[in-house]
Amino acid sequence: MYQSFEISNFRCLDEFSMTDLEQVNLIAGVNNVGKTTILEALFLHCGAYNPQLTFKLNAFRGIESIMYKPGQMMEKPWDSLFSEFDMSKEIKIVGDDKKTGIRTIRLKTVTDPEKLMKISQLIERDINTNVEIPMFFESTHVLELENESNGLRSYYQIIDQKGIRTIPIPPPPPFPTIFQGSQYREPLNLDVERFSKLELEGNLDRLIENLQVIEPRLRDLSLIFTSGFPLIHGDIGLNRPIPLHFMGEGMVRFMTLLLAIGNSPNGVILIDEIENGLHHSVLQEVWKVVGNAAREFNTQVFATTHSLECIVAAHNAFVEDGLYDFSLHRLERINKDIRAVRYDQETLDAAFEIGLEVR
Amino acid sequence: MTKTEFTKPNLLLVEGKTDELFFSALNKHLGFHDIQIIDVGGTSKFQKRLEVISVSPKFHIIKSLGIVSDNDSKHPSKTSFECITDYLRYVNLPTPESPLLPKGNNPQVTVMILPSEGETGMLEDLCLKSVESDPAMPCVNQYCQCLQEKCPSFPKNISKAKVQVFLASRKEAEKGLGIAARDGYWPFENAAFNEVKQFIRSILSND
């Protein structure tokens, strides 16, 4: 579980830190202040070794793929990650995590010919061939991810005429991490896979009970093949089960969130605009379920919101729980700097009592 | 579910709804429209509320911060002013050395103790002072004295009781101190209000 982290030169965050993190963390703030950016930075840090995750960030933003033609002047998929698109800077993300301790990752573009030569040799060793790889011409681009935990280790994302490669093959991340974007929906088969795992672990009844917060008529869930693909169906008392994905955006997002938490024990869940698709009347119960699930699976949750109703509902839900392993972090831009203001139970109480804005 | 945001460069923190209404009326009387007033409740919650105010959105636009507190400290060894300065220190805001003496910049902080630093009491005492020469006051005092002698459950706060009785003597009786201020029942031109008017002007002077 992250206790704190720092971000440098990543998108709009030049120097930024968040401290005293809880099991569930809600991030608020005006538009374009860096809420999603924080989730993205955490996603990269959780991945620990894999520079290819930078490509996924574009997909989370709704840019599914970037056409890249070697030799043409074009932005690389990682250019936008650097503060002010300045690739001479180094992105640095430092996280203090209870499980893995303090880990630092750095992202930098590689342009030094000597270093590029070394990477070339690394590729040759990696593919175990003596054939020279013609990668050192103008249209070759390399992003280095340097991981500093138990020594330094670098992984390279390479774009050249041969395509896109990651060298060396990165190890699996230290813990599972799932990102639920506001515009991005993971492939249905991932939901199916996570659903099957929960069912195998005997957690199906709990899932049904939790989803009843949004759809009280829900009696049962099952996997049914339609057109050759398995889909999660729900029985809501009609003459046949219906695919959950037809029950509305809120239902799908909530199910995806619960499946994500249940499939990320000791991991991290990142949710952009958690309130999307959810009616205000269910928000408090949704937060109770999220809090309980996060505790049960020891999953740390980071979510963003624009909604005051969502913040109030979360506060009330965690007050009722009595544990209050929750905090609100409001991002604020003052001149060029962006800072996070942390609200605990007492400060949120005080803010609501006076009627102060907390978004 | 609308929420208060800081919209003006001058902010006045007061101890309750009554004070909020009173100072709104006084500002209007003085022709000052650039002071935002926020009711932070009683002194017991003041520290946490001051803390959340100091980190709230757009607090950085505040150039001048005024704080009004009754001189009725419940602390065993500290005056109301000392309690307020402790709270200010806790949230890293400028800490004035004495009441009515502004300190710091962005925001400049000024504290007023009611009815005044050397005098125990509250806003009610200040208002009563302003109507000392009102023909109704001898009756008000006599009535309250009679009650004190004959009724053991007489309200422990004599000033609040006197304000109620005084307002009951007006043409439109159903008013609290704050509404009475709004409706012009307190003579703001009276010398009793000079210090509080000076305080309000000092908040604006940094604008």
Q: In a nutshell, what does this entry contain?
A:
The complex is a heterodimer of chains A (359) and B (207). Chain A is α+β, with helices and mostly antiparallel strands. Helices cover 30% and strands 29% of the residues of chain A.
Could you tell me the CATH topology label of the largest domain in chain B: Rossmann fold
Uncertain stretches of 5 or more adjacent residues of chain A: 129-133
Helix content of chain B: 40-55%
CATH level 1 name of the largest domain in chain B = Alpha Beta
Work out the count of structural domains of chain B.
Answer: 2
Alpha-beta content class of chain A? alpha+beta
Give the CA-CA distance, first to last residue of chain B: 31 Å
- Helix % of chain A is 25-40%
SSE blueprint and pairings:
The complex is a heterodimer of chains A (359) and B (207).
Chain A: E1 2-10, E2 13-18, E3 24-29, H1 35-47, H2 53-60, E4 91-97, E5 101-110, H3 113-126, E6 141-148, E7 152-160, E8 163-167, E9 177-180, H4 188-200, H5 204-211, E10 220-226, E11 229-235, E12 242-243, H6 249-262, E13 268-271, H7 283-296, E14 300-304, H8 308-321, E15 326-334, E16 337-343, H9 345-354
Parallel strand pairs in A: 3-14, 3-15, 9-13, 13-14
Antiparallel strand pairs in A: 1-2, 1-4, 4-5, 5-6, 6-7, 7-8, 10-11, 11-12, 15-16
Helix pairs in contact in A: 4-6, 6-7, 7-8
Chain B: E1 10-14, H1 17-30, E2 35-39, H2 46-54, E3 64-70, H3 80-90, E4 108-114, H4 123-130, H5 137-150, H6 158-168, H7 177-182, H8 194-204
Helix pairs in contact in B: 2-3, 4-6, 5-6
